[in-house]
Amino acid sequence: MTVLDQGASAPISGAGLLDRDRTIAKSGFNRWLVPPAALAIHLCIGMAYGFSVFWLPLSRALGVTAPKACADLNLMTALVTTSCDWRVADVGVMYTLFFVFLGSAAAIWGGWLERVGPRRAGVYAAICWCGGMLISAFGIYSHQLWMMWLGSGVIGGIGLGLGYISPVSTLIKWFPDRRGMATGMAIMGFGGGALIGSPLANILMNYFKTPASVGVWETFVVMAAGYFVYMLAGAFSYRVPPAGWRPEGYTAPVASSSMITMHHVHLKNAHKTPQFWLIWGVLCLNVSAGIGVIGMASPMLQEIFSGQLIGRPDLAFAQLDAGQKTQIATIAAGFAALLSLFNIGGRFFWASMSDKIGRKATYFCFFVLGIALYASAPTFAHIGSKGLFVAAFCIILSMYGGGFATVPAYLADIFGTQFVGAIHGRLLTAWSVAGILGPTVVTYIREFEIKAGVTGSALYDVTMYILAGFLVIGFICNFFVKPVDPKWYMNDDEVAKLQAAAGVTKATSGSYGIGLGGLDAKALLAWACVGIPLAWGIYNTLIQTVALFK
Fold first, then answer.
1. What is the domain-level CATH number for residue 145?
2. 428 and 523 together in one domain
3. Is 308 part of any domain?
């Protein structure tokens, strides 16, 4: 089996604690320790999906029991007011900032990450994400919205980008035989972060709540401290394999596997190829459709099924009283929670499936199934089939998550592994665009339909057909993805020079790890550290979904 040369595996004298040289694995290292390290970071930054739990409490940060509203408040005055409570829309801007800066940071610093290694990137991600939460906490305490936007939105968004891409290249190199599964395990954590963070935030806010405080700034401080410990543990657990390392029994894809290259494309050239922009379109369109649904899942179920959710199919949404609206809101929250579970499960399921059927075929599944389900959703709504409607969107959200988890392996197949982390970082600008495109399309079409007098089961018909149209274009983009022209491949000397400059040592033969990297005691402990909190989050989510099926 291939391993590190013992002498080469030792850290270079004088190397800093965060230097790449200090992360090169030693003989006997178990590669199954790397996925939980990645999960430790992704489960923390994944709380970005759960920040909506803070919006309502923040909208009454001054009034505590009820918002202290000001009639003349606008977005600009909300940034600096100390006497008026913020509106939900004002604080909700952070959600857009998260994903805009996530994509931007990943694109800007992806090449740097490949040079310095995942540990430094993970530590900087922890500093930005948790430091941003502390700045936000002070912004809440002093009632300065601009500090929240700067702290969690901008600085925290940069931390999201660095943390999100930090394990991608490393996992793909450790698991050349299971690229999809490896990245699926890590990116599953980003989808699962809200499952842990949202109920934890509710517990903490209730604990810190007083007659003078809604308990949010205190919650930010505690969560920032906990996340910082977890993220540092993950960052310092990262290890990179030596150049050329392969697991025992691994056989490189044969020439017939034309969609998997054994060569490498340089970062500076990847965006010059049509393949990069086709995959960019594939991701952007898949995400635009899914993220639009995520943002409107709760109101969509309430407005389409209305009284049917509480056994009163004769009542339209506008006819429900306050108590009945509270009941259906609880049921709709269960729907949103169920979608989160499928979002997470889909990241692992579809990414692992892509190892069997190929990345291109996996995306074809996303688009063909997605088109059929989006186009059928209006019919399910009109016939009043809550079960079919919920099932359709559970599958759709599994493919939304699966798209994120499969794309790093798709890039590695097409462009090689030398710069896959940096190329993935640039590709995530598609997420930034989708984070604006999807919610904007869904929101504006809904408003247009309401103004036109459309209500009930027909309210989202046009939206569903347009989202299906997004996927048709995505299908076409995926159809045209083919192997990169050989003129873009780096030669062996170029690759060797890059690896030498980065301090990457060559592998030699010997005894390495335990078989393919089994779940020994150390690995089981590492998995327990991330698995137990995730299981707690899933349990809480399942409890929340019960109301949907009563």
1. 1.20.1250.20
2. no
3. yes
Rg value, the chain, Cα: 24
Do 461 and 531 fall within a single domain?
no
336-376 pLDDT, tens digit per residue, is 888 889 999 999 999 999 999 999 999 999 999 999 999 99
Other C-beta atoms closer than 10 Å to the C-beta of 306 total 24
Short-list 297, 290, 295, CA closest to 329: 297
- Taken in order 62, 66, 71, 74, the sign of the CA dihedral is positive
Are 398 and 438 in the same domain?
Answer: yes
Of 477, 319, 343, nearest to 397 (Cα)? 343
DSSP letters of 266-306?
Answer: -HHHHTTSHHHHHHHHHHHHHHHHHHHHHHHHHHHHHHHHG
**In terms of C-beta distances under 8 Å and separation of at least 24 residues, what long-range contacts does 221-226 make, across chains too?**
221/133, 221/134, 221/137, 223/47, 223/133, 223/197, 224/130, 224/131, 224/133, 224/134, 224/137, 225/130
Q: Tell me what the mean pLDDT of segment 252-280 comes to.
A: 84
Contacts of 89 (CB under 8 A, 6+ apart): none
Q: Looking at the predicted structure, is the pLDDT value of residue 62 above 50?
A: yes
The total domain count for the chain is 2
pLDDT for 310 beyond 60: yes
Helical axes 274-305 vs 461-479, angle rounded to 10°: 160
Residue 506, classed as helix, strand or coil, is strand
Helix (H) or strand (E) segment spanning residue 508: strand 507-509
Q: Which domain holds residue 458?
A: 273-484
- Backbone φ, ψ for residue 175 (5° rounding): -125, 65
How many Å apart are CA 289 and CA 481, to the nearest integer?
Answer: 20
pLDDT at 514 over 50: no
Q: Are 112 and 197 in a shared domain? A: yes
Task: Out of 445, 467, 484, pick the residue that ends a domain.
Answer: 484
Residue 125, burial from CB neighbour count under 10 angstroms (0-12, 13-18, 19+)? buried
What is the length of the chain? 550
145 neighbors 86 (Cβ within 8 angstroms): yes
CA gap 468, 374 in Å, rounded: 5
How many CA atoms within 13 Å lie on the side-chain side of 49? 26
* More confident position, 279 or 508: 279
One-letter identity of residue 270: A
Q: What SS3 string covers 382-406?
A: HCCCHHHHHHHHHHHHHHHHHHHHH
